[in-house]
Design goal:
Order of helices and strands of chain A: EEEEEEEEHHEHHEHEHEHEEHEEEHHHHH
Number of helices of chain A: 13
Number of strands of chain B: 0
Strand order of the largest sheet of chain A: 2-14-13-17-15-16
Number of strands of chain A: 17
Helix content of chain A: 25-40%
Largest interface: A-B, 66 and 45 residues
Number of domains of chain B: 1
Largest sheet of chain B: none
Shape of chain A: globular
CATH topology of the largest domain in chain A: Rossmann fold
Oligomer: heterodimer
Radius of gyration of chain A: 22 Å
Largest sheet of chain A: 6 strands, mixed
Number of helices of chain B: 17
Radius of gyration of chain B: 23 Å
Structural class of chain B: mainly alpha
Distance between the termini of chain A: 42 Å
Number of domains of chain A: 3
Helix content of chain B: 55-70%
Shape of chain B: globular
CATH superfamily of the largest domain in chain A: NADH-ubiquinone oxidoreductase 51kDa subunit
Distance between the termini of chain B: 58 Å
Chain lengths: 445, 357
């Protein structure tokens, strides 16, 4: 394959302010262990796990805090620090909900104590044993999709649909966020190792690492690495939002269109996030469970933007403090990327496996909430990567014509926010789409 | 706790960033793009053109502002859209039109074309064209009275009819014209000459605009350059302009091939009359054009065909205004039938069909 081609999805999308310069050259630094951590017992898409420890227990980094549930989707939660269990409480989450959580006081002198699993020796295993061994290890390590969806990875790897290509999502199309960018630069070896493991686990012939061209250093690194891996290609993507959306990544890289309401496996593809695959390599080769993740703390509202390796359970406030604190008064704090993330005001919210970024926007750069009438300019239609008519859909929602809204594609929307970004009238299109969905089926949140 | 709950309600949903290209920024840039055309109009037709632009813009802004004051809502003139309407009204009126008639046209444009429908975003038709269509009927003779461009005294004296006392009919221009007009002046625009006598006009005059016509419609190339500025800044949908011009050119070329002595060539078709101004600044009005990707092409082709049909076969020499108004009227229907196919939708239906079989 031509290693220098630049691909993109064909219709829709928009160019956003990138703001990667703030942190693309800042190496990942560990966040010092805070005085206390609050580790939620649900950091995955699914049901919370039951605690496996009790008040007063001494736990080591890597020890299991919670695992068992009766039925359903779950991912094991491990302690990210060595210390004493102080108690259980409800931890606030960015979306306004609360989750049962373990409070632990780390023992500052003993942070090198770590519980590791035995490294897996996969050499000489049959395809079936290889698959079973990797999936079991991924489950034991509590690995979930670290791009933000936090779907348990062992379930994703265990799906039955045949997969011919594994695509690594290094598009990172959200402004400000440089987690995958730095990881591709600093940990490309683990990334390629992890991709090889995933590729063999699902029996795919080919692996692709895709990265947008606004990350030249990361792109060069993965291109260099790909030379040594006969089954893996590096693929450059144009800078266009939302390349990181699974369906659009697949469309861009492989020109396959995932059917509505179907998973990528319907077209023979498995998509994994950069950090997820690195976590798999660490779990297999070093026996390390997922207790830390990389978080970009950035924005013009924070003094020293950084990429941090944070222990799960440290608070958002801890991370902001370590980055020099607020640079402006009353910054708008967004957890996740500024396009799809949640605005928060409570800095005591703990960081979890899903926290990819903390962005402090200045009030001027934040969208605000005053809007005008639709001027029918069609820009929302032009940028919609799902080829939907956002103006029409939201007009239906606001007129309470829910059937028409549904027919116009209300449920096909991926909530990327490109339409709302470009809207000259600043209309809160995404909010209306969400409202329409909740009216159609209040259960299907 | 209740305080915390109240605070959390104020939190806004994603996305948290906005493009800086807001309505007022786009509209302001359209005004910038119209200014060179206004300058040319003043150079071409003199004091009367200047007065026309000032009066029309002033009346348009005042109409919207007074309306906002009367209904006690914040004034909307700050979004600049009414300024565009005012300037466009001036540019599509004959330079000799009495100023009071221009003021009425501008008032009708904003009041009937825009406010009546609910203001910016709700108007079905291009407001400036609504006003012009009104005046075409109300003031038929003055709306078809043309004066030569480039008159020597144009910067020191008004065209006499400009200053007609409000609510009176303007006097005849014959006497004045016999003094100032160049030899051979027939009082006709290139389109009228073509329509009635199949007399062509030199291409350079059509393209650069030193010729009789509506105040700001004559300089085809300048209008195109101004449109290019907006297209490059992505503040105008170039596909509409492009499809109108290409359709009009190809369609008229077809007739020209059949009978060159009866029908004009495409260059004449593009350069004469208000096609360029209409295609660049009027048909592209966001509110009254379709919003789908396919729809804008359908809309442009429709207008292009209608312009040629009206010009060649209609009772009027010029058809741009009615072609665009028809396009505006068809626009909601065009949008409706050109809704895009959702990503992933076709595969799904095929698969369902397969499963069903």
């Amino acid at each position: 394959m031509d290693n220098t081609s630049i691909k993109k999805f064909p219709i829709g999308g928009t160019h956003l302010p990138e703001e990667k310069e703030l942190t693309t050259h800042v190496a990942i630094t560990p966040l010092p262990v805070p005085a206390e951590v609050l580790i939620p017992l649900k950091q995955h898409l699914g049901a919370p796990v039951e605690p496996a420890v009790k008040v007063g227990d001494r736990v080591r980094r890597g020890d299991v805090l919670g695992h068992r549930i009766q039925t359903g989707i779950r991912a094991i939660v491990h302690s990210s620090v060595t210390g004493e269990v102080l108690g259980f409480e409800d931890a606030p989450m960015p979306d306004g909900s609360t989750v049962h959580a373990v409070r632990i006081r780390p023992d500052q002198s003993a942070q090198t104590d770590e519980t590791l699993m035995k490294p897996l020796d996969l050499e000489g295993l049959s395809a079936e044993d290889y698959r079973a061994a990797v999936i079991a290890r991924v489950e034991e390590a509590g690995i979930v999709g670290l791009g933000g969806a936090t779907f348990p990875t062992h379930i994703k790897l265990g799906l039955e649909d045949p997969v011919d290509t594994v695509v690594i999502n290094g598009a990172e199309c959200e402004p400000y966020i440089t987690v995958d960018d730095r990881l591709m630069q600093e940990r490309a070896d683990a990334l390629f190792r992890g991709l090889e493991i995933v590729r063999r686990t699902v029996g795919a012939e080919r692996g692709v690492v895709a990265c947008e061209i606004n990350k030249p250093d990361a792109l060069q690194k993965i291109r260099e690495m790909a030379v040594n891996y006969p089954h893996i290609d590096a693929q450059a993507l144009d800078t266009r939002y939302p390349h990181g959306a699974e369906k659009h990544l697949i469309k861009a890289v492989l020109d396959r269109e995932v059917p509505l309401r179907a998973l990528p496996s319907a077209v023979g593809v498995l998509v994994n996030n950069v950090q997820t695959v690195i976590a798999i390599a660490d779990a297999v080769d070093s026996g390390r469970p997922l207790t830390h993740r990389v978080v970009t703390v950035s924005g013009h509202g924070v003094h020293e933007p950084k990429n941090l390796l944070v222990p799960v359970g440290a608070t958002i406030g801890d991370a902001i403090e370590f980055c020099g604190g607020d640079a402006v008064t009353d910054p708008v704090i967004v957890v996740g990327g500024p396009m799809t993330g949640l605005e928060i005001s409570n800095r005591a919210i703990p960081m979890t496996k899903s926290t990819g970024g903390i962005v402090l926007l200045t009030v001027e750069e934040h969208a605000g909430n005053v809007h005008m009438a639709c001027i029918n300019c069609g820009k929302c239609v032009e940028v919609c990567p799902m080829y939907l008519p956002p103006s029409r859909m939201t007009a239906y929602v606001n007129a309470n014509m829910l059937e028409e809204a549904t027919n116009a594609g209300l449920h096909a929307c991926i909530l990327c926010g490109a339409c709302q970004f470009v809207c000259p009238s600043k209309r809160p299109l995404v909010e209306w789409i969400k409202k329409g969905r909740s009216l159609v089926s209040p259960v299907r949140r | 706790m209740s305080q915390a709950a109240a605070a959390s309600i104020e939190l806004r949903t994603s996305p948290h960033l906005r493009s800086p290209k807001t309505v007022d920024v786009i509209m302001r840039n359209v005004v910038y793009a119209l200014l060179p055309i206004c300058a040319f109009a003043v150079w071409n037709f003199g004091l009367s053109a200047l007065a026309l632009i000032v009066v029309c813009t002033g009346v348009a802004v005042l109409t919207e502002h007074v309306y906002c004051v009367l209904v006690k809502k914040p004034t909307t003139v700050g979004d600049w859209s009414v300024v565009i309407t005012g300037i466009l009204v001036a540019l599509i009126l004959p330079p000799a039109l009495p100023l009071w008639m221009a003021a009425v046209t501008s008032f009708i444009s904003v009041a009937l074309g825009k406010i009546f429908f609910g203001g910016l975003g709700y108007n079905v038709f291009n407001p400036a064209l609504v006003g012009r269509a009104f005046s075409q009927v109300a003031f038929t003779l003055p709306m078809t009275t043309w004066t030569p461009a480039q008159l020597p005294g144009r910067f020191v004296e008004f065209i006499p009819t400009s200053l007609t006392i409000p609510f009176l009919e303007p006097g005849s221009l014959q006497g004045w014209l016999s003094n100032v007009a160049p030899d051979g002046w027939t009082g006709a625009t290139p389109l009228q000459l073509m329509k009635s006598e199949q007399i062509g006009t030199e291409a350079s005059q059509l393209l650069f605009g030193t010729i009789a016509g509506s105040t700001g419609e004559t300089a085809a190339v300048l209008i195109l350059v101004c449109g290019l500025y907006l297209a490059v800044r992505k503040m105008m949908n170039w596909r509409i302009t492009f499809s109108i011009l290409v359709t009009a050119a190809l369609f008229s070329w077809l007739f020209h091939l059949i009978n060159p002595s009866q029908y004009p060539d495409p260059i004449f078709m593009l350069g004469a009359g208000s096609l360029m101004l209409g295609a660049v600044f009027m048909a592209t009005d966001m509110v009254s054009s379709p919003e789908t990707r396919l729809g804008v092409w359908v809309y442009g082709i429709f207008i292009g065909i209608m312009v040629v049909v009206i010009r060649l076969f209609g009772g009027l020499p010029e058809g741009v205004m009615y072609a665009i108004l028809l396009g505006n009227a068809a626009s909601p229907l065009i949008s409706r039938v050109t809704q895009p196919k959702t990503y992933g939708a076709v595969r799904k239906s095929r698969k369902q069909a397969k499963e069903g079989a």
